[in-house]
Amino acid sequence: MTEYASIAQLLALEGSVPEVVLAAYSGEDDARERMREALGVMRESVREGMRPDLRSVSGMTGGQAAKIRPEAALGGKTLARASAIALAVAESNAAMGKIVAAPTAGACGILPGALFAVSEERGYAEEQLVDALFVAAGVGRVIAQRASISGAQGGCQAECGSASAMAAAALVQLAQGEKTAMDSAIAFALMNLMGLVCDPVKGLVEVPCVYRNVIGVAGALTAADMALAGIVSPIPADEAIDAMGRVGAMMPAALRETGIGGCAACKLREG
């Protein structure tokens, strides 16, 4: 069984990153099929989340992803489409729809937003997307072991930050970038969301959670673009992961999914 406890170790192992991560699932012959199934669930959650009439149980979110028009977006069609998909999946989760936790339910829109939007633009094959999911899984595994993927433990940086890093690495894989670029993409994504608190309004995974999926996917796209352009992060990915873990440990309880501080303490618009 292939073992790795750091991004450096993961990238140093012989073979492509998807092959290395898949080898960690030795004895699980159906691992690729299970990942294809996960991809299918992601697609269905996008379709469900794009419904204009979708509403969460609380009524605070739903139907917003359908309002995004890529053709009119200031940031370009791919970013707008990624934003719409990320928001759709997050809203589907808030409406009790079936999603893939990537790595958590609160951050479930970031990875599909990045993969599907770029795939629509570039025409990647199904198996390329499956390989990208294995890369994301490998990165998520390292983050979970070295730091945290739990908002209650490390703030939203541990959820949306981790998802953004996973998506950034997956995008580098799709673009056939170098392993060194993957390391930088992970670091950029984590640095950009470092210190993000977990402050769910009314204790629900809706506000500001669904909107942070949008900024998370935007961060993943820009992190991947910088890395693929040859910009090297001064901070290695593992150092960024460890820093995130330390920052999370410093956060007061009011900013770690308790529904007390941050946006959770704000008054909502009436009506």
From TrEMBL:
UniProt keywords, alphabetically: 4Fe-4S, Gluconeogenesis, Iron, Iron-sulfur, Lyase, Metal-binding
Family affiliation: Belongs to the iron-sulfur dependent L-serine dehydratase family.
Catalytically driven reaction(s): L-serine = pyruvate + NH4(+)
One Gene Ontology MF term: metal ion binding
Leader sequence segment: none
Pathway: Carbohydrate biosynthesis; gluconeogenesis
Record domain Serine dehydratase-like alpha subunit: where: 26-264
Protein's GO biological process: gluconeogenesis
Cofactor: [4Fe-4S] cluster
Name the record gives this protein: L-serine dehydratase
Pfam name, any one: SDH_alpha
Known EC number: 4.3.1.17
Keyword Lyase: yes
